[in-house]
Every structure is written in structure tokens, then in C-alpha cells.
């Protein structure tokens, strides 16, 4: 074999090795992207499952709150105490799961509030939340249920 042929063969082998290295690097990058995407999707599935659970639990919290209000009006202390205990337990469970009540003080925020009614109020600034019809909640940074409010006109 001549020197030219040897150099040509070495050049082909170097080019072939470079192609294999390039394919391996691309494969490693694709696998890393797949792992990141799978992790992100798993987190989204968990968040959606938690959101579904929270949506189912919130009406129970509302019912217990209404029962507490009714029981306190009729002075049935034992009933009130029991319902209050259940209410606190459920509220603590939701807090542990990352559920937070939406702040309704201040101005109306369409991202977290749902305006049911706008009414004129003398001592309130236009757009201020004046009453809460139904509390709203977030789970992490997602609004599970917007706060239903009455807004000053």
C-alpha cells in the first residue's frame, strides 16, 4: 500500500469515527431531553390529580362553613364544636396539600377573582372588592377556583 492510500484510509476512518461520535452525542442529548420531558409530564399529572381532588373537597369545606354559621345562630354548642373540628381538620389537610385561600382584600384581579356583580358603593374605590360570595383557592400557583366577589362600581 502506498502512503497516499494509507492516508486516505486514515482520513476515512477519522471521518467515520467523527460521525459515530456525533451520533452518540446527539443520542445522549435526545435521551437527556426525553428524561426532562418525562419528569415534567409526571409533575403535571400529579398536579392535575391533586387539582381534581381539591375541586372535590372544596364543596365539603363550603358546606361545613355554612353549617358552622347556622349552628352558631341556634346555639347548639356541641354540634358547632364537632363541625368546627371537622372544618379545621379539612382546612389543615388542604393547607398541607398546598391549597391557599385567594386574597379578596383590595382591588379586583381577573386572574383570581370572578365578578358576580358590580354595585355602587360610596366609600369604596371603583374596582375594589366589597363582598365575597364564595371564597377562591389556589393549588401551588394554579387557580383551582376563582373567588366570586362583588365589586364596587
CATH evolutionary superfamily of the domain at 100-153: Head domain of nucleotide exchange factor GrpE
In whole angstroms, the N-to-C terminal distance is 94 Å
Strand percentage lies at 15-25%
How many β-strands, per DSSP? Answer: 6
Mean pLDDT: 88
Helix content: 55-70%
Sheet with the most strands?
3 strands, antiparallel
CATH topology of the domain at 100-153: Nucleotide Exchange Factor Grpe, Chain A, domain 2
Q: Could you tell me the radius of gyration in angstroms?
A: 30 Å
Name the CATH architecture of the domain at 100-153: Roll
| SSE series | HHEEEEEE
Q: What gross morphology would you assign?
A: elongated
| Helix/sheet category | alpha+beta
What top-tier CATH class of the domain at 100-153 fits best? Answer: Mainly Beta
Q: How do the strands line up in the largest sheet?
A: 1-4-5
Tally of helical segments:
2
Q: Please mark out the parts with pLDDT under 50 across 5 or more consecutive residues, or reply none.
A: none
Amino acid at each position: 500500500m502506498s502512503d497516499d492510500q494509507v492516508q486516505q484510509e486514515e482520513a476515512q476512518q477519522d471521518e467515520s469515527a467523527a460521525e459515530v461520535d456525533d451520533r452518540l452525542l446527539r443520542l445522549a442529548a435526545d435521551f437527556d431531553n426525553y428524561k426532562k420531558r418525562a419528569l415534567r409530564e409526571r409533575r403535571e399529572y400529579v398536579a392535575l390529580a391533586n387539582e381534581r381532588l381539591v375541586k372535590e373537597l372544596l364543596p365539603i369545606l363550603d358546606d361545613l362553613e355554612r353549617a358552622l354559621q347556622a349552628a352558631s345562630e341556634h346555639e347548639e354548642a356541641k354540634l358547632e364544636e364537632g363541625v368546627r373540628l371537622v372544618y379545621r381538620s379539612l382546612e389543615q389537610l388542604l393547607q398541607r396539600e398546598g391549597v391557599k385561600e385567594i386574597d379578596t382584600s383590595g382591588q379586583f384581579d381577573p386572574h383570581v377573582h370572578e365578578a358576580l356583580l358590580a354595585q355602587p358603593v360610596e366609600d369604596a374605590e371603583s374596582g375594589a372588592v366589597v363582598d365575597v360570595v364564595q371564597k377562591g383557592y389556589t393549588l401551588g400557583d394554579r387557580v383551582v377556583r376563582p373567588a366570586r366577589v362583588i365589586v364596587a362600581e
